[in-house]
Design brief:
It is built from 12 helices and 10 strands. By secondary structure, the protein is of the alpha/beta class. Bound molecules: S-adenosylmethionine (SAM), 6-(5-methyl-2-OXO-imidazolidin-4-yl)-hexanoic acid and iron/sulfur cluster. 6-(5-methyl-2-OXO-imidazolidin-4-yl)-hexanoic acid is lined by residues 48, 64, 100, 102, 134, 155, 157, 194, 224, 226, 229, 266-267, 294-297.
């Protein structure tokens, strides 16, 4: 399929028809899309590090790092280059091909801290991994500097549909998010852009999110699908857990709408059985976060994941990014 064959005009009715198909039909269609573009026995391993934690001025109601809520997350200033180097080296040893650095900023400061982030990107690239950052809103100049430092991808999620968005975040608009995404593209950095389910939204909201993601042209190279990790102290702490089959349907629909993208089974794996995760892979997920911690919340960790991939007869995408992109 040429990139010109990829569609950016999926309608809500089409998305609804895909999402609500009988599960065997939905998964079959997702498999066809998946097999046309990806190896079905491989999962891309990414590792996260929170490089600046807590005290964020945004009010994202799912997030334990927002300064608006009282949670157990303790604030931590930007980590040193040495700490970063140790974490990235260990990530590589655990099989990660992409290292993602997350900062609880509304936007990126133009000072020595940003210079340190640029050095961090160089360190990660020097170790032979893809480098991703998620730092909040960016100016064009900052995006260009990140690109010059060798940044592979920038993560900035649309999170939910434009209509539901105001229920979740009031301190930054949907359009501001789209503007940052456009600057990242303009700088020549690949996009990691997805969303979150289990916020108390209904299916229509998920169709709206999937439509917005598929309207991005080109599609985001990476689409993280998060399931809410309900954290004490946040406004969503008592939200009823989402049915894992809704996650499977969301992933399968994302795979069909954006067949060439990596679809990442992101936050929420602690709440999923091995069988539910297996269904997510059958539905076309081909990337996960490795390690015992996401940014501030727990994640299954190496030994559990090794057993899981072993049981499924799947493996982490091997190797250095240079070999990864060779074929
Ligand atoms: N501050 C940056 C930003 O918002 O762009 C970067 C990090 S932020 C933690 C990245 C994404 O993680 C959010 O957009 C959201 O989709 C996801 N996320 C945050 N807290 C979560 C939670 N408690 N459960 C599931 N996903 C979460
Ligand atoms: C994304 O979409 N999910 C990751 C990554 N991008 C930065 C973060 C998930 C965070 C989950 C809550 C936490 O650990 O703080
Ligand atoms: Fe801040 Fe990002 Fe958390 Fe929103 S999701 S409160 S922007 S760290």
């Amino acid at each position: 399929m040429n990139s010109s064959d990829l569609r950016h005009d999926w309608t809500l009715a089409e998305i609804e028809a895909i999402y609500t198909a009988p599960l065997p039909d939905l998964v079959f269609r997702a498999q066809v899309a998946h097999r046309a573009h990806h190896k079905t026995d491989e999962v891309q391993g990414c590792m996260l590090l929170s490089i600046k934690t807590g005290g964020c001025p945004e009010d994202c109601s799912y997030c334990p790092q927002s300064a608006h809520y009282k949670t157990d997350v303790s604030r931590q200033d930007l980590v040193s280059l040495d700490e970063l180097t140790d974490a990235a080296t260990s990530a590589k040893e655990q099989g990660a091909v992409r290292f993602c650095m997350g900062a609880a900023w509304r936007d990126v400061p133009n000072n020595d801290k940003f210079d340190r982030v640029l050095d961090m990107v160089r360190v990660v690239r020097g170790l032979g991994m893809e480098a991703c950052c998620t730092l909040g809103m960016l100016t064009q100049d900052q995006a260009d500097k990140l690109a010059d430092a060798g940044l592979t991808a920038y993560n900035h999620n649309l999170d939910t549909s434009p209509e539901f968005y105001g229920n979740i975040i009031t301190t930054r608009t949907y359009d501001e998010r789209l503007e940052t995404l456009a600057r990242v593209r303009q700088a020549g950095i690949t996009l990691c852009c997805g969303g979150i389910i289990g916020l108390g939204e209904d299916r229509k909201v998920r169709y709206g999110l999937l439509k917005q993601l598929s309207m991005l042209d080109p599609h985001p190279e990476s689409v993280p699908v998060n399931m809410l990790v309900a954290v004490d102290g946040t406004p969503l702490a008592n939200t009823a857990p989402e049915d894992p089959l809704e996650l499977v349907r969301t992933i399968a629909t994302a795979r069909i709408l954006m067949p060439t993208s990596f679809v990442r089974l992101s936050a929420g794996r602690m709440q999923l059985s091995d069988e539910a995760q297996a269904l997510c892979f059958l539905a076309g997920a081909n990337s996960v976060f490795l390690g015992e911690r996401l940014l501030t919340t727990p994640n299954p960790g190496q030994s559990h994941d090794e057993q899981l991939f072993d049981k499924l007869g799947m493996r982490l995408t091997p190797g250095d990014v240079d070999t990864l992109h060779a074929g």
